[in-house]
Each structure stands twice: as structure tokens, then as C-alpha cells.
Amino acid sequence: MYSVLMSGTDTAGKLIEATQELLWERGYVGTSPRAIQQRAGAGQGSMYHHFGGKPDLARAAVRKSAEEMRATADADLSCEGSARQRVRAYLSRERSVLRGCRIGGLAQDPDVVADPALRAPLQETFDWLRSRLAEVLEEGKNGGEFGSAFDPAGTAATVVAVVQGGYVLARSAGDPGPFHEAVDGLLRLLDAHAAEPGSPA
Amino acid sequence: MYSVLMSGTDTAGKLIEATQELLWERGYVGTSPRAIQQRAGAGQGSMYHHFGGKPDLARAAVRKSAEEMRATADADLSCEGSARQRVRAYLSRERSVLRGCRIGGLAQDPDVVADPALRAPLQETFDWLRSRLAEVLEEGKNGGEFGSAFDPAGTAATVVAVVQGGYVLARSAGDPGPFHEAVDGLLRLLDAHAAEPGSPA
DNA sequence: GTCTATATATAGATAGAC
DNA sequence: GTCTATCTATATATAGAC
């Protein structure tokens, strides 16, 4: 198995990176081996030497994208500040909204959800993200940032869904606006759950 | 132009309905004219007699699906009850969660967002839905259901995003669970915005 | 209106030379 | 490891008979 830790300077690495890009832009069904080879600057022979075919290459590319996405999210959620500030940092990070989510976008593809090896990185990424957000929100609740009725796990699922759904609304509108409206609406709802001023910090 | 009001008993209607189903199941890129003809029980000649080709047929099918989706949502949001009850009715309606949204799912398809005539029904549907939800929430706020800091328009965008994102999480997990967790988390956040008991009904 | 024949391009992969 | 040739199936459509 090709190590995901290598950078894309060798042929196999370039093929993986080209596949990552194309899966993001065109989805799995819309990505052809030919397009991958052209973008990677590699020939047919190279691709089928290093990988068993399109599904095999796609599995490597999706795993790598999932790892990168987790690292990015973890950086936001592990920064300095209160739980509320860290969730806000995650939600307000600059994104190329109209491109959508590299991982979430693949969930629409029937051939991806039908192949356990292709779907697994999606499931693992969102499971991890929800649980990491729940952890942060739980810390905030324990620290007195939220009231006693506040539900960290449920709220974590809502936060992730707003981001993924925001992408859908933005792409449908051809405009990043709806993404930001959905996120801002969520942040206001979260503020309403804030504990009374003067609660334990 | 083929009237969207006719039922699918004639050939053109059957072609449109077959296309609606396939777009939902396989997306635009993943749907071939051949598959449409087979599902509709129509031949090549029929399809190209009634429609100019795949894009033309897809435009008719997407417009029809969008109309149907708006009618369904409007039924929930126009029912009896408080604003909170109507939004809850919309969010808690029974859905085939793992199939995803017929309209939102198409936003992932690059050929859909690139074609203004194909993307327009998506944009119009979500614009309408957000504005209809904002209307309901505004009525609720005016009726004293929510506090003065409550933002109907922002919350409406959040509600729509949670549903669309919930589909993404569920399909990624191969399990409807995450959809319902995201929706439940949202409903709890909304409850936190409730006005004090005793406010004007 | 519907059918069959035909046409070009691409998808996705294998074989074997170098 | 990489290249070129080759292969079968499908995508997407046009032409013209009936």
C-alpha cells in the first residue's frame, strides 16, 4: 500500500493528488482514469502499474483527503480559548465554500456509498469530527459556558450538519452567502444557550 | 414545453418520471439516456422526439421535482399549530433519509451547477424554503414564542442547512441515525430560545 | 410518434514491447 | 516502471424507415 505520508513528487503520489483534486471537482462517477492520468502527467501504464484501477486509486485518495480534513479541523478545535471560541474558530475558518466539502460531497455519489472501502473514510471522518466537537462542548459545559440543559453530543451533530448543509445551499445558489447565513444563525442559537453572566468561568 | 401538470401516463410523462427517479438515485452525471429509456419503457426515437437530449429532459425533471418538494414542505409549514410546532412538523416528517434530498443532492454535481437552467430550480427551491421558514418563525416571534434576540431569517437558513447536512452525515454513515441526532440537537437549541413562560401567546 | 441502424467519442482496462 | 497498441462496453446522439 502506498504511504499517504509521502508527498506527491513521485508518480504514485502525483496520481493520488490528481485523483484527490478530481474527486473534489467532479465526484467519483465523474472522474475518469484518463482525466487522472492527464492531470498527473502519467501514462496508462504507470497508473495500472501502481494501482489496481480507478476504485483502488480512489480509495487511496479519499483516505488521504480524510486525514487532511481531520488535521485541519483539529487545528481549529485545539486552539487557545473557550469552547465557544474554538467552535467559532472552526465554523468561521475561511473556506472555498463553492467547492464544497471534499469528503461530504462524496456522500452523494452512489458508487461511493455502495463500496464499503470508499465510504469508510467518510464515516470515520464525521464520527471523529462529531466526537471531537462534543468533547469541546462538554468541556465548555463543565466550565460553566453553557446551561445545564445544554446537550454537547446533539449540538455537535448539529454543528457538523450546518457546515455540510451550508455547502449545499451555497452551491445551489451559486453564492457563498447562504453558507454564512446558516453558520451565523447557528452561532446565535448557541449564544442563546450561554450560561448567565457570572457563572463559573 | 411539456406540462409538468400531466401525470406520467403518456410517453413524455413516463420519461420525465424515470428521469426524476434516476437523478435522485444516480445524479446527473451518473444518469444515461439509455437508462432513462429502459426505465420509462420507451425507445431512443421516442426520447429524442419529445426532448432535445439529456440536458433538456433533465431540466424538465428537476423542475418537476422542485415543485413537488415545495408542495410537500409547504404542507408541513402551513399546518395548524404554533410556529414551533410547524417547524417541528417540517423537521420531523418521515423521510427516506438514506436516499438524500432529490434537489439538494444535485448541488454536488458539477454539470448541474454549471448549467444555469439546471441550477435555477435548486436555487429557487431553497430560496423559497428559507423565506417560508423565516415567515413562520417571524410569526412565532411576533406571537411571543421566541425572545427579542431571536433571528428568524438566520435561523431559517440554519434549519434548512441542518436537514441538508443531516442527509450527508447519514449517507456517510450508512445509517439514518446522524440525521436524527442533528435535527434533535437543533430542536433543543431552538427550545433554548423560547420566551419566558407567561409571555404573550 | 416510434423503431432500427449507424456513428463518434470516451470509459475502463489488458497485453506486451522497451 | 513506463509506453503504445488494442479491446469491449457504454454514452450520446443522428438518420431515416415505418
From TrEMBL, chains A, B:
Does the entry feature the keyword Transcription, yes or no?
Answer: yes
Q: Name one Pfam family in it.
A: TetR_N
Signal sequence, renumbered to the chain: none
User: Which UniProt keywords are present, listed alphabetically?
Assistant: DNA-binding, Transcription, Transcription regulation
Q: Does the keyword Plastid apply?
A: no
Residue stretches making up the HTH tetR-type domain: 9-69
Protein's name according to its UniProt entry: TetR/AcrR family transcriptional regulator
